[in-house]
Design brief:
Elements lengths: L1 E3 L5 E8 L4 E23 L2 E23 L1 E5 L2 E5 L5 E5 L2 E6 L7 H13 L1 H30 L2 H4 L4
Antiparallel strand pairs: 1-3, 2-3, 3-4, 4-7, 4-8, 5-6
Length: 161
């Protein structure tokens, strides 16, 4: 899964618990675009769905809460924070439009009606997709923050703690 649009992120709130090395951020993404391969043979809601191929998604007004728990360590006589576990991410979508190519072995009519059904019921369908997106966002955020935490000491990041 690939996610695009994170560069337009707004940081709405940051809370730091210095004593317990915890960080909570509230983020807002106006638009996120996702591409993925899929292989489906089951049910979404009550609709049986079968197919494999490419999937795209457009998500708007995405709110995310990101929670980190760090562990202090010393390097060059300075205290640093290491995030060992991937951050916990909770996502709420404002709106969602998805498209699955090649549903029902390329049957255009069934594919079109299934994609319409999925988009008409996006709030219910997104409940099944969000855990995958949360895992991907968690991995992305961890990869963005790890180099920063490795490079800057605790005092450099939070000089007035």
């Amino acid at each position: 899964m690939k996610i695009y649009g994170a560069k337009n992120m707004d940081v709405k709130d940051v809370k730091v618990d210095v004593k317990n090395q915890k960080l909570t951020m509230k983020l807002h993404f106006p638009k996120i675009y996702m591409t993925s391969d899929y292989d489906m043979n089951g049910k979404v809601l009550v609709l049986p769905i079968k197919g494999n191929g490419k999937c795209t998604g457009n998500f708007t007004n995405v709110d995310a809460i990101v929670f980190f728990k760090g562990k202090p360590y010393t390097k060059n006589n300075k205290q640093f924070i290491k995030v060992e576990d991937a951050p916990k991410v909770t996502i709420k979508l404002g709106n969602s439009k998805m498209h699955f190519d090649n549903l029902f072995n390329g049957n255009q009519e069934l594919g079109r009606s299934t994609n319409k059904f999925l988009n008409d019921n996006w709030e219910l369908v997104s409940a099944e997709v969000i855990p995958l997106v949360q895992d991907t966002v968690s991995t992305i955020i961890q990869s963005l923050f790890k180099p920063v935490l490795d490079l800057f000491s605790f005092d450099q990041l939070l000089p007035e703690h």
